[in-house]
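Good day; I would like, with your permission, to put a structural problem before you. A protein sequence and the structure tokens that stand for its backbone fold form the material at issue. I would ask you to consider whether the tokens describe a fold that such a sequence might reasonably adopt. I set the record out below, with my sincere thanks for your time.
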Amino acid sequence: MWCYADSQQFSVGDVFNVALHGLTLDLSTALYFLIVPFLLTLVSIWVALPRWLFRSYDAFVAIAFSLAFVADTSLYAFWRFKLDTSWLPYLETPGEAMASVSVGYLLLRLLIVIVAAGAIYYCYGKCGEARDARCGAVRDASYKIAARLKETLLYLLSIPFIVIGIRGGIGDATTNTGQAYFSENQFLNHSAVNPIFNLFYSLSHQLEDLSVYDFFSEEECRQLVADVYPTTSVATDTLLTTDRPNIVIILMEGAGEQFADCMPYLQQLKQEGISFSRCFGNSWRTDRGTVSVLSGYPTFPTVSVMKMPEKSQLIPSIAQRLSHLGYATSYLYGGDANFTNMRSYILATGWQQLTDVKGFSLQEQETGAWGVRDDITFKRLFTQMTENAQTAPDSHYLYGYSTLSSHEPWEVPAQKLDDKVRNTFAYLDDCIKDFVEGLKATPQWDRLLIILTADHGINYDQIDNSTPLQKNHIPMIWVGGAVKSPRTIDALCNQSDLAATLLAQLHQPHDEFVFSRDVVSKSYIHPTAVNNYNNAQWVIDSTGHALFDFDTRSFVVSEGANAEGLLRLSKAILQTTTNDLKNRQ
């Protein structure tokens, strides 16, 4: 922040916020690097260890930390994202890498590294004097066995606390870079992220494995997907009464069409609004489905875009586009937004406000296994909307909301059905009913568009990955006073097509959403849906559907006479989407 003070706007308060929000990553990083001296010191209680063993590690840490922080600060001017694995390819061509900077530039930074490493090594040495003394203490006959046993026990008892500190607590979310994000200003978020932690985190979330999906030449691949992803709208049907509605996007946890019979109110809304009857989820996990819905971006068999902040900040989003149109944007989630890096994704893609479990009382935070249960969060959303409508009646709002309760362990406060899983979805249905019916009684209903869809389907009863038509089929319903008239749209589509379809209704271009289609446009001539999971991908179009496992190199499911053609299409889609992800920078 000191180095970029001339080009970035921030206050003294921002400096303290950056330090505060980055503490958990700093702690986790420190504890990771503490493991080696911790173990060496534990051994030294019983066996004399040479002092140079500790000092060598001190020197390694001093040099590594200095290099990382200096490199991160220097590269940020060029890359505008944190130190990660992007620098590794440059090791093969160091001459080209150095061509962008002068010799003086490099010498100055080398000097800083040397000075910083020396200072860190000196501080480590001063702090390690007692430790070094301990190395020789085992030679002292007065250091009795009982004392050694007590000290050993103390070290062993501290191990769980080290583990908890490394993983960031005992909750479901483990330490990740997203938990340091707290601001709409990405510079502040990046400043809060420990570069060493980010480097190691990126090493565990690499894109190298995506190169296995390069099946065709560029030209052949382009021809295979030529008509699958149109980015313009032609003669689009008009679905809304206004091109500036207030919008609510609700992602229903796991609420695939397989649970339609225990969600009667949702079926009623299909008759009152617009139902996309052949909509399919892109993936099998919440982090993937959320990105598909909110960014119109595809999912991938082996990686999650949400877990890669350096990539997720580069993809488009509905919130980002609408904020440019003057919409105020806010997102609500009853769980921990640090889970799967949701916080970094939400704040990096145009959502101006984020409320998660920490925004509720301690009592409310404990109402569900994953956080705040749905009836409470629905009420919070309703309150936000009605208060905003009263204080700024002429403003435009986009609300995002992820439900939570329809998830294992399937615990909800209502008991309507005997089956625990189905009862959870019946409870969600009641929450939706109370929310929507409450809004119908308010003046804001006339300008309101509520979009209900699921993040993914789930394995339940006889439905699993071997029955993709049933598992991946999800609802997408548009309801509200802004809906022109009830209708059913039976075009085959993905949840990722929401972005382009919605923007077209707002008379906005959507060409940056390269994998989202306006499904009520005349340009949508090759209806297709894709779903993937764990190195397998399913594709469906008018000729049939096929699920192919790339590990076993065999079809899991194949229906229709065009299995090989669908496999070629699936491979071309995978090659196109993975190359887009790799090339975004």
